[in-house]
Amino acid sequence: MASPELNVIVYGLGAIGGTYAFFLSRSQSVSLSVIARSNYDAVKKNGMKMQSLGLGKHSFQAKHVFKSAAEAGEKLSYDYVICAHKALNQDAAINDIKSLISPQTIIVIAQNGVGNEDPFRVRYPENSIVSCAIWIGADQPRPGEFVTRNREHTDLGLFPNPEIDAALERSRVETFAALLKEGGLSVSLEENIQIRKWEKVVCNILWNPISAITQQNMGVPFLESSEEAEAFGKALMLDVIAVARKSGVPLDDSLADKYIAFTKSLGSFQPSMLHDLKAGMPLEIDVIIGAPMQKARQLGMEVPSLRAVYAPVSALNGKLTILGA
Amino acid sequence: MASPELNVIVYGLGAIGGTYAFFLSRSQSVSLSVIARSNYDAVKKNGMKMQSLGLGKHSFQAKHVFKSAAEAGEKLSYDYVICAHKALNQDAAINDIKSLISPQTIIVIAQNGVGNEDPFRVRYPENSIVSCAIWIGADQPRPGEFVTRNREHTDLGLFPNPEIDAALERSRVETFAALLKEGGLSVSLEENIQIRKWEKVVCNILWNPISAITQQNMGVPFLESSEEAEAFGKALMLDVIAVARKSGVPLDDSLADKYIAFTKSLGSFQPSMLHDLKAGMPLEIDVIIGAPMQKARQLGMEVPSLRAVYAPVSALNGKLTILGA
Question: Could B236 and A210 be called an inter-chain contact, meaning their C-beta atoms sit closer than 8 Å?
Fold first, then answer.
């Protein structure tokens, strides 16, 4: 790319934020900043390490490592702000990034779940929003060290802003896709990113809440645990697929069988929500289970299987939040 | 009562077995034997203690304390065998009591749940079976020491045996009710005990599996944990009520609201399944959740909320069983 350097900042340097930072650091067109919080000292001192399944081992560093959004906002203005924090305290995070946002800034939401664009749009109505479905299993075994466990791929697309010229929005999302591709990440630019985001939630709804309430790995350990396990998992996905469809996102029921087969093929694995539960950390309920549940409520739909995981997982999380307080 | 002494034996001297032993020990018409297993040494040496909410503190002892059913069967023959063991390994227990059973022996099933009579009937087709709905919250804080936490009440009735003269069966169940009453227990002799047993399962289905999957006390802590909690609890009970009704047990849907209100009135409490889960003990799934689930399957019914607790609790239990092996 012959375009001038773009200021890109990653907010939330967890496993996904770190992986995005790695790919962006490899693009000649990017001047990269990161906001590190719990891992600031390690990243500032030693830089970052990446063990990419596709690209091997690398050391890299951002041009600027900041401790906070406030500090980052004083230093520079940004073309792209990648929000890769966990979707837990969205309101606080959305308020926290205000110093990074000018009317021209493009906000990239690199999070699990659905419905996470709305509060960003409400708070920053003038901005373009790019949303992602991230198909990357990643960990941060030590501060600033990132490891991916599967092929690194991202689907992305616009959360269209009717106040902005469509061609301009289009060029903004294409530029962002190009930056990631230049860094070596597999990227699909989607006409309707909501399809891919809801597809991922259908898969997450099978993996995350069930592993939390069974305190057990997902895959074969659950799916073969009783004569009703697979039927329950399928019914749960079909509830979410129905909500998606009624919300205008055209998913097919066959997705449920596809994900059952895929999940079985993985054997036994620990979904992120089980990991968080074991660590006594709050669970990413809102965007994975809460948003479909809320949509169902708004649409007056009966979703007994979805409700049957929403209620206990919320109770589990409430207990963790109380314990953590 | 002027009737001759009846040989009555309690098999399974846990909290419920001990409470039954206490009331039977106070009947002049009973010659009481007990089969103690884990608490044999304490009971043999020190006798038993009862702290009854209705009748205060008492020490008592059975005429015979046995270590095993085999030993008990060599010594005496029995008019009534009270099966008060946990409904976990039913087949093993049903086989174990064979030395206690003659064709005249009346089998009393003093267990939670529904469907527990069938395997006894298959194994002992000549015998009368009395079944109970036990509304007693009891503990055994130390071996041989029993404490009740609420008014001690039992509903009981026949599991009718078409091979036996109805008047004879009637006299057998009336005699057993009279023995317990003579000892001071509040007893209702029911025309159709299945109604009361299924009612208790409707209540148990709200309390036990939800407390297991939320790892949290039942009552207000769950029912007010999210905007869907109460609706989920109610839907779960309505599923079981529908199964009962289709199985020929006439329960009314209003039971669900009644138990929601009752459960709220109790504040916060730990159901037995949560207690067992925390202790790493196997969960009493089969008769509380498994039997309604199996009935639903046989009847071709859709019970999404029931299935949504059956599957994860079975998975939880499988994990415990594996850990315990």
Answer: no
Average of per-residue pLDDT across B186-199? 98
Q: Which residues of B touch A225 (CB under 8 A)?
A: 311, 314-315, 318
Dig out the tokens for B283 from the structure.
Answer: 């969960």
Question: Which of B221, B309, B316 faces A308 most closely, judged by CB atoms?
Answer: B309
Average pLDDT over residues A307-318: 95
- Whether residue A308 and residue B311 make contact (CB cut-off 8 A), yes or no, is no
Measured distance CA(A307)–CA(A292) in Å, rounded:
10
The amino acid occupying position B307 is: R
Amino acid identity for residue B186 in this structure: S
Q: What is the mean pLDDT of chain A?
A: 94
Cβ–Cβ below 8 Å for A312 and B210: yes
Is A315 within 8 Å of B226 when comparing Cβ atoms? yes
Confidence of residue B309 (pLDDT cuts 50, 70, 90): very high
First to last CA, chain A: 49
Sign of CA dihedral B246, B248, B251, B252: positive
Quick: pLDDT tens for A77-113: 999 999 999 888 888 999 999 999 999 999 999 998 9
| Cβ within 8 Å, pair B228-A310 | yes
pLDDT tens per residue, range B27-64: 999 999 999 999 999 999 999 999 999 899 999 999 99
Question: CA-CA distance, B259 to B265, in Å (whole number)?
Answer: 10
Q: Residue A324: is its pLDDT beyond 80?
A: no
Which chain B residues are within 8 Å of A318, Cβ to Cβ? 225-226
pLDDT at A3: 58
pLDDT at A70: 97
Q: Which of A205, A206, A207, A213 is most worth mutating to test chain B (most B CB atoms within 10 A of its CB)?
A: A213
Q: Give this complex's ipTM.
A: 0.86
B99 or B3, higher pLDDT = B99
Cross-chain residue pair B315–A236, CB shorter than 8 Å = no
B6-191 CATH fold: Rossmann fold (3.40.50)
What residues of B are in contact with residue A228 (Cβ under 8 Å)?
Answer: 293, 307, 310-311, 314
Question: One fold for both B6-191 and B194-324?
Answer: no
Confidence of residue A321 (pLDDT cuts 50, 70, 90): low
Domains of chain B: which residue ranges?
A: 6-191, 194-324
Structural element, H or E, at residue B133: strand B128-135
| Among the ranges given (A169-173, A287-291, B73-77), the one the predictor scored with the smallest mean pLDDT | A287-291
Which region, left, alpha or beta, applies to residue B87 given φ > 0 means left and ψ of -120 to 50 means alpha?
beta
Task: Give B132 to chain A, closest Cα distance, Å.
Answer: 29
Phi, psi of B288 (to 5 degrees): -95, -45
Contact across the interface for A225 and B315, Cβ inside 8 Å: yes
Q: What single DSSP character describes residue A248?
A: T
Superfamily name and number for B194-324: N-(1-d-carboxylethyl)-l-norvaline Dehydrogenase; domain 2 (1.10.1040.10)
3-state secondary structure of B225: coil
Alpha carbons within 13 A on the beta-carbon side of B262: 13
Averaged pLDDT, A106-129: 96
CB-based contact A307 B215, cutoff 8 Å = no
For an interface test with B, the pick among A206, A207, A208, A215 (most B C-beta atoms closer than 10 Å) comes out as A215
Q: Which two tokens stand for residue A176?
A: 């962002």
- The confidence score (pLDDT) of residue A325 equals 36
Q: What is the per-residue pLDDT for B325?
A: 35
